[in-house]
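LOG
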Amino acid sequence: MELTPLHKTRAEQEMEKTDPRLLLESQGDVFADEVSSEEGEDRQRRAPAIRKVCFGMIAFLLALFAITAGVLPARVRLREGSPSNDPSDIELLANVVMPGVHISDLNETSAQYRSLEWLAYNDTRGLTIDDDATELLERFSVVTFYYSIGGESLDEVVDPCDVDKVLHDWSLWLKSTSHCDWDGFDCDGDGRVTTLDYYIAKMHGTLPTEIGNFKRLEKLLIMGNQQLVGTIPSEIGNMRQLSYLELSSNAFSGTLPTEIGNMQQLTTLRLTANKFSGPIPSEIGHLQELEDLDLPNNTFSGPIPSEIGKINQLIGLVLGSNNISGPISTEIGHLQQLDVLYLSNNDLSGIIPTEIGNLHKLLDLNLANNKLSGNIPSEIGNLEQLDWLTLPNNTFSGPIPSEIGNLQLLGSLNLSNNTFSGPIPSEIGKLDLLFGLHLSFNIGLTGTVPVEVGNMEELSYAYFEGTSLTGGLDGGFYVICNRPAGFDDFVLAADCGGSNPKITCECCTRCCRTDENGNRCDFV
């Protein structure tokens, strides 16, 4: 006997209400019964639409089951507050942020792999591979940077000069917040990284290649991290909006990538006190906006590239304490905005080019401790803004040019340990602001110290030892000879020692003599 609705259990009745297949059967029976009625024709026309609704319900239920069971792609599940635990998520992410790199090629302890893991399994920020790929790429690059420089082992870093001041707080990293809120970052209005600033951050490790993914970066400062090693990745050339790059006082090594020439918005490039080696790339000449080029205290070698002469905006050129060799190129005279030129402590040879006289804005010229030779060109007198002229420990020869007397703003003149000859030009006495005069150990200097030099009222340090100068230094030298009692910061040194002194000087603070042990000096 066929059961009517009255004979069916409540559970069977409820199942009929929800089972799409039974709904379809019952709908078909209803349509069949009503075809013969006066409204049957109209209901028959509506039957296909009702069937579509029912089939749509079935498809929705099947899709919901597929999502729950994990049949659909994992990227759908990478939603806010719901990080995945599916290993395939890492591969999906890698396809977006590291195209062309297969996940099997990554070491599971690498910074890149650990970054992918964190994004897939721990990050609750809510970014997915359906979102803006640029934002996801930057977040991946930030996290990779963190793991590459040992961020997980770092904590608060305090200012060594003020222990109450926190310089960096690494505990703010790897949070669900935007990476723009993490320590050391600034971003623009679009949430793109524009600044990385890490001064004495106790970093250790290397710079990852992903540093090149910060396409809107304008300032990169990583300074004072003595355990930060390795090379500068060539991808740094991708940061074409960068205007300030400082990587001083770390332990980076290797050669500078030629791609550094791509950063044509750069105004400051400082790589002081690392272990860089090899030639200075000629591509630096492409940096037409560069104002400060500081590469001292490394082991760069080879010549100074002549292309540097193309950087017309250059204000400071500091290449001291390297192994740079060869001559000073004449192109140096093109840098007419230059106010600082430091080439000391290298292996430079040859002469000072006359074009040096074109640097009318130069304030500080330091060529100490090289193998430079020849005469000082008279054009040196054109540098009327010069405050410091430092040329010791070379093999310069010939007379000291009288044109030095044109340098009315000069505060320090150091020509010691060369082979200058002839008299001291009296024009030096015109340098009213001169406080330091170093002419020692130029055995060819002869004659007496000009009275004009002794009358320089600002002179606090004067060195004449190791020369062939004669006569007396008892007149003038007002500051030195009338120094306050107990003050030892004033120096007047000459060959006034021994039984047969070359110079008489009652006011000298140091008297030197030459004997079988060489030149010896005694403090008075």
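LOG (cont.) second protein
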Amino acid sequence: MLSRHLCQALRATQAKSVVYRSALPALQMRNTSTSSASKGQTISISNLNMEPNQRPKPDLSFEDSETAFKSKSSLELLRGYLVFQLCSLNFLIDNQKFLLSFSRRVLGKHLFTQLMRMTFYGHFVAGEDQNDIRQNVENMMKYGVKAILDYSAEEDLATDNSFKGINEADQLDSSKKYFHPSEFNSDKNKKIFMNCIDAVSDVTHQTGIAAVKITSLVRPQLLLKFSTLIKQMNELDNNYSLLSWDNVMQMSDEQFDKLLNNTDGLQYVKDRQSFSSDELGELRNMFSRIDELIKHAVEKNVRVFVDAEQTYFQDAIHRITIEIMRKFNRNRCVVLNTYQNYLKSAYNTLKHDIDLANRENCHFGAKLVRGAYMEQERERAKEMGYEDPINESYDETTKMYEKSLMHCLEEVKKNPLGRISVMVASHNEQTVKFAVEKMMEYGIEPSDRVICFGQLLGMCDYISFYLGGLGFSVYKYVPYGPVEEVLPYLSRRATENRSIFEKLQKEKRLIMTELKRRMLPF
């Protein structure tokens, strides 16, 4: 059913595209004209070369369709409109896993891959590898928008990543001892992240950011166990001296065993975690992978976002991120943490981390997001019988987000310029308006490059490219990877962004406004 609807839509799109292609020469000549349907001022690419005080003031109605889609061809706009139409159908979102599986069986791998490239994958994913993504990234940079590169294969507790696509003969490091078959895949992922850092350095000329997922660097089941131990350690007075990065990296096997299995103060903790010698070896290898990655980023002068993931992993992910920030953020911001504001604990965690960075005189970087695992979190909390960690409502999450952002802005003003860096990663137009208005209120200039904005590739172009054209620091979160490996990412985004897809009327309207502007001779 899905494939039939998609094919019909694509045929209609291809038929329409003949009309648009015939008009393309005229459209290209009219790219510098101002849209009469646009309520806001049209921003020329020449604004990027102006002095900050000469640039136009932002029109926060975000109605400038010409600037929003200047980087897109008419065919890309048609594809975007089709994809957004499909994403607004509840039937497709509710049954996506079945429909994708069914379409794959009916069409076969080759046709299914082509269908994805022509629709969802083509719109939301930049390509399979560094060569594929280069053109997309360079095109965005022409219009003032930079890239966060993310190899978007995802792992969870149910994932069996043992020898996934790897033969024993393909062991990536013959000098390393492996303690579980999944480590072959973890090393493969480390190499992918290293290549991602190289791609940021090369393709974006060091202006972009690389995204890293800790669950890709260790067996998720073991990370869950380690996360439980970290949560127990957090109750100790000396917990921040226990996992100092240099100490962990220099420990002998006996010292590492004592740290994890015989920590002073945890002897009588209920459900205390214990680790076998093989599990200790796996964790040591995980620390080594992370250490290699961050040192490589420092060498390449590339910043790294550590993505937040499900809360049952997050105690470990958060602690690891804080420790590498304490180690590597001494002279500049290399590592940035992610704060999920749908969590009830988000503001307190953020405030605690900034206070720690201030005490230790190191740079602090934060990406503020709403959160992307809400349904999984609530299902697991109900299943396991613990308190739902998610805010009660969307409005409560918005309040949490604004509270976190305000604290960051206050810290930006209190500290030397560049000590605190924040990304407002949101598709909510009101949240972006709030951030821009507060920047103006606090006297923080776009050219200061301490507050930036981020949206997913293929979404909210009318915000990203408008602000980028005005000289704000703007990023697109650019997923890449093979079609089959990226499908879980696309599926999760479709589920978690359901509320966004339901509010796409403005983006669809602006797409049609721009297509009409390009078609009409006057």
